[in-house]
Amino acid sequence: MNYFQYNHNELYAEEVPVREIVSQVGTPVYIYSYKTLERHFKAYDSAFGKIDHLVCFAVKANSNLAILNLLGKLGAGADIVSGGELHRALKAGISPEKIVYAGVGKMRSEMEMALRAKILMFNVESWPELEFLNQVAGELGVKATVAWRVNPDIAADTHPYISTGLRREKFGLDIHQAISEYKKARRLKNIDIAGIHVHIGSQITQVSPFVDSLIKVIDLIRKLDAEGIGIRFVDIGGGLGITYRDEVPPSPQEFLQAISPVIEGLGVKIISEPGRVIVGNAGILVTQVLYVKRKDNKNFLIVDAGMNDLIRPSLYKAYHEILPVCKREERPRIVADVVGPICESGDFLARDRELPEFVAGELMSVMSAGAYGFAMSSNYNSRPRVAEVLVRGDQFSIIRERETYEDLIRGESIPAW
Ligand code: LLP
Questions:
Q1: 320 pocket-lining for ligand 1 (C-beta < 6 Å)
Q2: Which of 109, 240, 340, 390 sits at a 20 to 30 Å CA gap from 48?
Q3: Are 238 and 334 in the same domain?
Q4: What are the pLDDT digits (tens) for 60-119?
């Protein structure tokens, strides 16, 4: 459920016509809905009911300060993967005791920054990383609270690039080696080994892989308990999918109903790291049709947004629904590729898509673009990154200015020689 709807054939973001935003901000532009974000976060958070929990929003999905700030105000913590994301989360007002830090390649400077900020927990992925964290914490005279990220060897039925729970992937500790690694970790002076972390992938639309991996985690907790190693935090990761096209993912309530019997009564705090399910359907990318081109019996709608603005179709063959911002009755339908201005054949937003016959100059909305949209955008082909707008009720604000050509070359210089 989101608040991008037609009213008299015109697409609105909450109570604001998309056309009005475009007339002030231009295209391409990402538009987010406050009410949708609020609704999604509350639905997810409240699904935990009485379970002691903390929802840490996965900053990588959408790292705009305004969005982090609004989620933080609703009680969210942050799941970060870099010093840059830590900087953003803190700037957005998220308290460090609600921040967890994952990723296989944390650097010294990032560890120091997170230790100084006193974040809640590091999710550690390998023994060399843990030893290094122990050393860095020792140098700062502090103790790092740590969860081992375990790899449960569970297949999640999703795109291979975003499936992480299989043994062959770079992520986590092989669950079969976990007991010995926990025992070793206990001997490190500057490490408080307090949790278990598991994240099996993204855009998962069934509950069974989550349940199966948590059953393995709970089994591990029991074994650790028998060894006298007490666990205080179980971080169940993110990964719950959304509807892009016709997927029917479990709702947060259904998700919790399925996993509650497994995680209840453990006497631990449950941490969860949703990204896409909070922000995916709370954002759209609006682009303008530049030219309509017909070639070899094929139609191309050439638009002003490219793979640098939204890379998901190119990278994962991801489907994003495409809607006209102004619907017109009775127009013929065509089959077309929607392509951007980038010099690569992989630069498309849709392929062989049946669409209403768009004309040049018309506005097009690329739906479900709130997660991993702007966050994965780049300056490829020296294209300034686009503006981001947040709508709340009948008002809207630019939450990120469109970049300028000067922004593009900031920091570059030509050597005197
Ligand atoms: N926690 C960890 C450790 C993760 O690696 C991720 C996502 C999340 C949480 C959040 O997952 P979510 O709830 O959003 O599924 N760029 C890809 C998705 C990459 C996901 C990477 N990790 C895409 O556009 O589909």
A1: no
A2: 390
A3: no
A4: 999 999 999 999 999 999 999 999 999 999 999 999 999 999 999 999 999 999 999 999
pLDDT of residue 150: 95
Does 294 lie in the same domain as 268?
no
Q: Whose CA is nearest to atom 19 of ligand 1?
A: 162
Can you give the C-alpha Rg of the chain in angstroms?
Answer: 23
Q: Is the CB of 238 under 6 A from ligand 1?
A: yes
Residue type, 171: F
| Range(s) of the domain holding residue 21 | 4-31+280-408
> What's the number of domains the chain is made of?
2
Rounded CA gap, 303 and 347, in Å? 11
Please write the tens of the pLDDT for every residue from 262-310.
998 899 999 999 999 999 999 999 999 999 999 988 999 999 999 999 9
| Sequence-distant (≥ 6) Cβ neighbours of residue 59 within 8 angstroms | 68, 78, 79, 80, 81, 85, 88, 89, 275
Q: How far is the CA of 276 from the centre of ligand 1 (A)?
A: 7
296 and 329 together in one domain = yes
Distance CA 80, CA 159 (A): 22
CATH of the domain at 390: 2.40.37.10
The phi and psi torsions of 294 (rounded to 5 degrees) equal -120, 130
- On whether both 145 and 203 belong to a single domain, the answer is yes
Catalytic residues: 343
pLDDT higher than threshold 80 for residue 340: yes
- Domain identity same for 152 and 256: yes
CATH of the domain at 187: 3.20.20.10
Contacts of 388 (CB under 8 A, 6+ apart): 29, 30, 31, 32, 64, 374, 398, 399, 400
**Contact present, 65 and 88 (Cβ < 8 Å):** yes
Q: What share of the chain is helix, strand, coil (3-state, %, to 5)?
A: 35, 30, 40
